[in-house]
Amino acid sequence: MLIGDSGVGKSCLLLRFADDTFTENYIATIGVDFRFKTLAIEDSIVKLQIWDTAGQERFQTITSAYYRGADGAIIVFDKTNPESFEHLDAWVEEIKKYSENCFVVFVGNKSDLKEEVSDEAAQKHASEKEIPYLATSALNSQGVIDAFTTLAKNLINRKTVFKEIGDKLSPKKTKKNTSCCKSK
User: Fold this and answer.
1) C-alpha closest to that of 147 among 45, 62, 37, 31
2) Residue span of the structural domain in which 65 resides
3) How many domains are contained in the chain?
4) The whole model's pTM is what?
5) CATH assignment at residue 128
6) Could you tell me if residue 171 is inside a domain?
7) In a domain, 180, yes or no
8) Per-residue pLDDT tens for 81-118?
């Protein structure tokens, strides 16, 4: 899932990652959009279903429904816009309201432009929150694959750990006999 303020480049990151395309004239996402992408990571094949959520507050009631059950989220800020960086913690709180086990990655997008938020400041903030940070540019592809791969690798590692401890996040349900008729 991609989360962040409007205009930070979430849709452009998704298009760069999923379709290897970029457009400067992207229309703001209304509600949500999504793409699928399959990755080969180490010995695993991972099919990601990536939801691109609208950043405008007026869509928050719609987009928050997509946070439920999310395994991972990339929270994006615009490196040329310090205000979007200041909203990172609010986005973390928003996702944690609906999906307490969601793995989060911070992404500073638009690193190809004159930045107002340094990588050092972003890395320091991410380290304090124990959240990975990566700088990206949807325009020139810098760091885009790394951001999604970081998310996918962590999800694979977590799934392996959960299997080893008995898969407590998604317990196996016993199948009930649901037939309507009993034979004599």
Assistant:
1) 37
2) 2-164
3) 1
4) 0.77
5) 3.40.50.300
6) no
7) no
8) 999 999 999 999 988 888 878 899 999 999 999 999 99
